[in-house]
Amino acid sequence: MDFKIVGAQSAARGLKAGKYYMIVTIPQNFSHNATTLMTKRPSKMVLHYETSAGHNFTATKMTASAAKAAAQSVGEQVTKSYAQTMFTSIKKLGTGLTTAAKGNHQLAQGSRQLTVADQKVAGGLKTLAASSVKLTNGEQTLTEHLQTYVTGVNQAQAGSQQLTTGWTNCYRSLSN
Questions:
Q1: Higher confidence at residue 133 or residue 30?
Q2: Cα–Cα distance, 45 to 58 (Å, whole number)
Q3: Is the pLDDT of residue 37 over 80?
Q4: Which of 105, 138, 71 is nearest to 113 (CA)?
Q5: What is the rounded average pLDDT of the residues 112-122?
Q6: 42: how many CB neighbours lie within 10 A of its CB?
Q7: Backbone torsions φ then ψ of 133, nearest 5 degrees
Q8: The pLDDT of residue 53 is above 70
Q9: Strand, helix or coil at 37?
Q10: Sequence-ordered alpha helix ranges (H) in the chain
Q11: Is the pTM higher than 0.70?
Q12: Residues in CB range of 74: below 8 A, 6 or more apart
């Protein structure tokens, strides 16, 4: 047997004339239907064949066997392609899961670093708050001591004026 690719009209004329024993028609949606195997509603992959049963008994038997073999061969090829696609997808999935695991590990490390940084910031804020209280207390103490100093300076000035007045009065008394 020999296979030839011909147009639909030429194939029909050749079959009718006894030139061809069988016509195998591959529908336009055959390849698309092969891609629907994993969908919710997979489409059937159907090869259409037509034989010239009235011309030759032997040819009829041969074409029936050929049609069965062609269908089986196509089925095997589709299964092989499907298996290759699945293995490729599984390999990609494995690579993706590995990448995701690495990313998850990096996120966990980043989260731990963030926790440590948060703890340092919290410690720093506590120290700052304590320092602010000490600074406020120190400011109050400084203000109180400064007021005491100013009062002492005022008293010393007043005492100095009294002393100066007393000496001046004493000098005048002695001079007279």
A1: 30
A2: 28
A3: no
A4: 105
A5: 87
A6: 12
A7: -65, -45
A8: no
A9: coil
A10: 8-17, 30-34, 57-175
A11: no
A12: 45, 47
Q: Which letter does DSSP use for residue 21 in this model?
A: S
Per-residue pLDDT band at 9 (split at 50, 70, 90) = very high
Q: Please name the residues in contact with 53: beta carbons below 8 A apart, sequence gap of 6 or more.
A: 60
What tokens were used for 27? 């529908």
* Structure-token pair, residue 39: 């969908």
> Tokens for 139?
């400011």
Q: Which pair of tokens denotes residue 3?
A: 């296979």
Q: Which amino acid is at 150?
A: V
Q: Indicate the length of the chain as a whole number.
A: 176
Q: Which phi and psi angles does 24 have, rounded to 5°?
A: -110, 120
Q: HSE of 77 in the Cβ direction (CA atoms, 13 Å)?
A: 9
**Residue at 81: amino acid letter:** S
Closest CA to 22 of 56, 61, 49, 2: 49
Q: What's the rounded Cα separation, in Å, for the pair 63 and 61?
A: 6
3-state secondary structure of 137: helix
